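Trying the structure run again after the queue cleared.
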Amino acid sequence: MHRILILAVAISALTAKCGDGATSPARTGTLTISLTDAPANLEQVNITFSEVSAHIDGEWLTVQGEPRTVDLLEWNNGRSITLGTAEVPHGEYTQIRLKIDQA
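Done. Tokens:
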């Protein structure tokens, strides 16, 4: 059976933090990673995510590091669940990684 996972990534408006005037201000934004699934005729689809991270400038930043079990069937038909939210440096993120412990 082919399952479709849709990962919605929303980066909120980037904000500039005030510096001391001697250097340019650090720019950060909020990265929110959400998950939704296509409807299916199943009883349960449980997945345990151990880590959610994003890739920028050659390094991985952890957005959520605590294991979390989700029943995908509870998150479909327009409903989504937030897997992680973090303040991250401004920039271009090229990859998102979801580590799965158990499915």
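The first strand starts at residue 5 and ends at 11. Worth checking whether this holds up in the mutant runs.
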